[in-house]
Amino acid sequence: MEMIRNGGETAVKKELKHFYIGDSYGGNQDWFLTFMMRIGGCAVETVCDLSVYFAKHYGKRNLYPYSLDPVDRKEYVRYAHQVKPYIGPRPRGVDKLETYVDGISRYFHDWEEAELRAAPFSGEEPYSAAAAAVRNQIDGNYPIPCLILKHRNPLMDDYVWHWFLLNGYEINEGQMKVRAVTYSNWEWLDFATLWDTGYSEKGGLILLSGLNENERMYAGETPGEGESSPR
User: 5, 125, 222, 231: which has the fewest Cβ within 10 Å?
Assistant: First the structure.
């Protein structure tokens, strides 16, 4: 965690390590082999990126039994189609948190990492509880799968009916931003704006747990030289 002095205020910032595939920051559903996976494989992509993250930074090789240094694009795509049966495209997409939890839990079990667990955090929860959950997860070194269904703010159009990851936060002068990761890129988003969709049909967050105390001692990393440019 990074503490930043800004005049009389102290900003708090933490960003988790991720990975590259060539010049791409993480995976990209546009690489997938079928039309349905390219337009509806966002949940699969988040599971793939989580698996590489846990394998690369925590040694959980059962989740991603392919090259990690470097991560190979062809192997990543092959692997994504192995994940597809658990959480792949469907007529309305993976539009329920419980559907995601069921799929990733079966995946963790079948790939022999059942100590990793997932729980839903509804988009109906108040902002204050959501902000606390984000801090707790990132401080515990867990990236967060996030689902937005509808959103009234046009700045969020790229995230409508979409799963993506949050892997960092910054709090400065009472404002919380989160680092959103999708389509091989990242950008900082105002979390209050993200959370206030303006619609009754909401998505939410997936909260992960199960790393042991030694594993959780790993420290996050601020992006340095070579990090991809934000969108």
Answer: 5
Nearest alpha-carbon partner for 177 in 193, 158, 154: 193
Q: How many CB atoms lie within 10 A of CB 79?
A: 22
The structure tokens listed for 70 are 């470097």
Supply the pLDDT for residue 219.
Answer: 37
DSSP classification of residue 65:
-
Helix H or strand E segment including 20: strand 20-21
pTM: 0.90
- Lookup: tokens for 78: 């092959």
CB atoms within 10 A of CB 110: 12
The Cα–Cα gap between 95 and 55 comes to 27
22 Cβ contact partners less than 8 Å away, ≥ 6 residues apart: 70, 73
The position carrying tokens 């990492």 is: 113
Q: From CA 165, how far away is CA 144, in angstroms rounded?
A: 5
Cβ neighbors of 15 (< 8 A, separation 6 or more) are: 167, 168, 179, 220, 221, 222, 223
Beta bridge partners of 20: 25
